[in-house]
């Protein structure tokens, strides 16, 4: 794998170079699972073109061309189950997919993309999914590793007392640990390895364990890959960061289940189980972040999710990002499983909706759950719906939320704190052209959840004057003198306003 990594790097089998080779049109078509434009762009016989045709386009290639692209490695890759040789041609058994972020070129081992060129989608129960929109969203949501985080000014930083021996000692010394729960192809483990000393990855799918180990080995990343369900493989262990995209698809308990997306637990029990066990596996200040789904019933979703996160004793920020009706939900996942053109499609569709009716499910929701072991007497729970613009990465915004929570908890009076406006905060004014005074003033964040708040002139003046030198109360007193208002009355009126501006991130410590 080390030699393969070096060869892939030399050939330029990276996200950027493949995009350059294919061009915008062919690359866009490939993202839509259409390979013809990419096939036309890769006829030059170069090693890079051969690798793109072999893995990305899933085309059998002449053995001589593959040997030239991967000199001295074809037989070993056949032995490892990556390639197969059929006479004078070589084909890929798995996808070795270029992947990366701003500072890394990586490769992910996963099963071949199903349904290319409108071919029938055929996936087995142990199918290993590659890079998906969900996995990318989780990578953006996950907070940076401890070595990459700013020093918390208000939160706890005491080490968790060791409860094990040897390698099982949680957070031993300066060592930081991360858990990729339900690793699949191992992509989250690559991200978690940045900023953590040790990474553990778990899964119940034997093929996923094989793929995750190959992914880690191919990228030169040390990952402890373990077999087991939910929290069983890490019993008694604690982590600084836990990231998980569990199999949250809610489907009837009949037929073959795709391990990467479905579990045997009823309705949204898989996400509830993850949330319930998080507190037992986090060091103080540690994070568990879940990309999940939950059902809508007669019970308000905030009460339902609050019943999950409240008993954990953890600070929780739950963001509901999307709600879909049941017919759209069933259609999406039947198509994902390749059932759309089968004779039993309508029967399965109807049975799924019948099952939803029997369970009292009215709609399906998707969102984020961020849990933090703050160990405060009364945990902070924020549950909200946000269907508007988000500027990634979101992990930094999650850390900033925690810092604001700690600052509010530490303040006897929110007006006695020296707040400042968020670095990306902008002000927009609206009114008729030529008018001296605006009809409306809107403050808007430029990153994370791009919140906006319409404010009055006092709030605008307050936020504009808060640069860290004066407390919010001192600025309000100055505004009271300027506007000939009673200082105490102004303080009472705007104390909850300041609290809300901080909670929403427009003001920061």
Shape: globular
Whole-Å distance between the termini?
A: 47 Å
| CATH-assigned fold name of the largest domain | Rossmann fold
- Which range best describes the helical content: under 10%, 10-25%, 25-40%, 40-55%, 55-70% or over 70%? 25-40%
Record the strand order, biggest sheet.
Answer: 8-7-6-9-10-12-11-13
Largest sheet: 8 strands, mixed
The radius of gyration computed from the alpha-carbon positions, rounded to a whole number of angstroms, is: 26 Å
CATH class of the largest domain: Alpha Beta
Which structural class matches the secondary elements? alpha/beta
Strand content: 15-25%
Question: How is this structure best described in words?
Answer:
With 509 residues, the chain is of the alpha/beta class. It folds into three domains: 2-93, no CATH class; 133-158 and 170-327 and 364-409, Vaccinia Virus protein VP39 (Rossmann fold), CATH 3.40.50; 414-508, Alpha-Beta Complex (Outer Surface Protein A, domain 3), CATH 3.90.930. The protein contains 17 helices and 20 strands. Helix 4 (47-56) packs across helix 5, helix 12 crosses helix 13 and helix 15 (457-465) packs across helix 16 (472-483).
Provide the descriptors you would attach to this structure in a database record.
509 residues; alpha/beta; Rossmann fold; Outer Surface Protein A, domain 3; 8-stranded mixed β-sheet; 17 helices; 36% helix
């Amino acid at each position: 794998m080390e030699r393969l990594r070096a060869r892939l790097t030399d050939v330029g089998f990276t996200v950027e170079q493949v995009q350059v080779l294919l061009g915008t049109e062919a690359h866009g078509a490939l993202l839509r699972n259409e390979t013809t434009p990419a096939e036309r762009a890769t006829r030059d016989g170069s090693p890079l073109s051969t690798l793109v045709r072999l893995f990305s386009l899933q085309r059998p290639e002449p053995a001589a061309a593959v040997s030239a692209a991967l000199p001295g490695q074809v037989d070993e890759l056949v032995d490892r189950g990556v390639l197969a040789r059929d006479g004078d041609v070589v084909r890929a058994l798995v996808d070795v997919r270029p992947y990366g972020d701003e500072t890394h070129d990586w490769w992910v081992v996963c099963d071949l993309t199903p349904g290319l060129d409108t071919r029938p989608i055929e996936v087995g129960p142990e199918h290993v999914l590659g890079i998906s929109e969900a996995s990318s969203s989780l990578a953006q949501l996950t907070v940076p590793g401890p070595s990459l985080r700013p020093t918390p000014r208000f939160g706890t930083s005491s080490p968790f007392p060791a409860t094990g021996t040897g390698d099982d000692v949680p957070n031993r010394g300066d060592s930081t640990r991360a858990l990729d729960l339900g690793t699949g192809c191992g992509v989250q483990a690559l991200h978690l390895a940045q900023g953590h000393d040790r990474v553990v990855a778990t899964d119940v799918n034997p093929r996923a364990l094989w793929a995750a180990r190959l992914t880690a080995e191919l990228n030169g990343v040390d990952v402890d890959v373990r077999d087991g369900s939910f929290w069983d493989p890490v019993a008694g262990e604690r982590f600084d960061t836990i990231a998980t995209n569990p199999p949250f698809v809610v489907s009837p308990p009949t037929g073959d289940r795709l391990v990467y997306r479905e579990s045997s637990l009823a309705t949204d029990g898989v996400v509830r189980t993850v949330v319930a066990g998080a507190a037992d596996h986090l060091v103080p200040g540690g994070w568990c972040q879940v990309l999940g789904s939950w059902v809508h019933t007669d019970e308000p979703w905030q009460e339902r999710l609050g019943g999950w996160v409240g008993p954990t004793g953890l600070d929780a920020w739950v963001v509901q990002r999307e709600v879909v009706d049941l017919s759209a939900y069933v259609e999406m996942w039947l198509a994902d499983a390749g059932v759309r053109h089968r004779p039993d499609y309508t029967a399965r569709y109807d049975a799924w909706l019948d099952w939803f009716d029997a369970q009292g499910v009215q709609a399906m929701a998707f969102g984020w759950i961020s849990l933090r072991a703050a160990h405060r007497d009364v945990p902070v729970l924020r549950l909200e719906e946000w269907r508007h613009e988000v500027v990634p990465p979101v992990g930094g915004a999650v850390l900033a939320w925690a810092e604001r929570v700690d600052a509010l908890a530490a303040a006897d009076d929110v007006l006695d704190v020296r707040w400042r406006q968020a670095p990306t905060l902008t002000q927009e004014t609206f009114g008729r052209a030529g008018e001296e005074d605006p009809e409306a003033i809107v403050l808007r964040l430029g990153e994370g959840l791009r919140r906006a708040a319409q404010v009055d002139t006092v709030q605008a003046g307050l936020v504009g004057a808060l640069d860290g030198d004066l407390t919010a109360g001192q600025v309000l007193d100055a505004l009271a003198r300027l506007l000939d208002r009673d200082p105490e009355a102004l303080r009472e009126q705007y104390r909850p306003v300041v609290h809300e501006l901080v909670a929403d991130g427009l003001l920061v410590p």
